[in-house]
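Section 3.1: Structural characterization of target chains.
Under the original work plan, the team committed to producing a structural model for every single-chain target entering the pipeline before any wet-lab resources were allocated. The record below documents one such target. The sequence was received from the expression subgroup and is listed exactly as submitted; it comprises 343 residues.
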Amino acid sequence: MPNPLTLVGTYGSPYSLKMRAVLRYRQIPFRWAIQGTADEQGIPRPKVAIIPVLGFPDVSGEVTEVMVDSTPQIARLETMFRERSLKPTDAALHFLDLLIEDYADEWVTKMMYHYRWAPRESVERARRLLPVWPGLHATDERLERMGDYIVDRQVGRRALVGSTDTNAPIIESSYMRLLEILHRHLEGNDFLLGNRPGSSDFGLYGQLSQLAIIEPPSTDLCISHGPRVYSWINRVDDLSWWRVDGDSGWYGRDDLPLETLTPLFNEIGSTYAPFMLANEAALKSGEAEVVCKIRGAEYRQGAFAYQGKTIGWIRDAYTALSSADREWVDGVLAGTGCESLFV
């Protein structure tokens, strides 16, 4: 058995649980190290202090290289391990997988942040839970100080990431629609693009692992409006048992369940797409604030450089398609609003 990778993260981090679920499904040996504990000692610090951190060992087993950012982490693993790949064999389907993953990472994450740091009961739950995951043996006084620090910092960032009272109806209605879309899709499908999961499944799982398990208001909404989603989240947490036969299991173009996927692309095109385009425009013009219309309502938040990078990655993936594959993707996305990303 090769020396295991190391994944540094924590239970309250959607991207940490996304990557842990990826490693479990792919049956890649790894060691889980909770951020802020002794298990993290000796692991090189990444240049950007975010989680999850994926550590790669040398021949002796010592972690000598680390990287952050779940999408590049998944891509790196695809170059290292062939079995149980997350990459659809059809390039056009792979592109759709990347698009949905980025929607999860950059838009559904707003739902997660909002439901954690806006409702009073969620804030109090986070105040108690987030410090104790790394601080299991900390004193009550230290846990209280840590909780106060985390809450003050994160609640203070709400407006920057879009969780404002004005934006709340936009974010909350988007969450409700996503639950209903996934609930319908899961009635006849195990995953989004086949009988095996892709990056998009794990992207959505990561955000929903918090929304539908930890935060009380959004958990209640999931159980009442999308009970299949709640069940699916519990499954995706550990898919090491899921049977995969080589490269098979992806939907073909003719059997792609567009009756349930088109509503998802409509949702992406009416929320994620206008936000990403407005963020890109704000970055180009040097504006500090993003202002756009989402389903007829005005949405405002701070401009984010990172999301300016990810829209570039999605466009690069679109441009890299063959003309025939691009034509098929255009047909799938026509009229959903997603096509505006590639004009």
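The chain has two domains: 5-80, 92-241+253-342.
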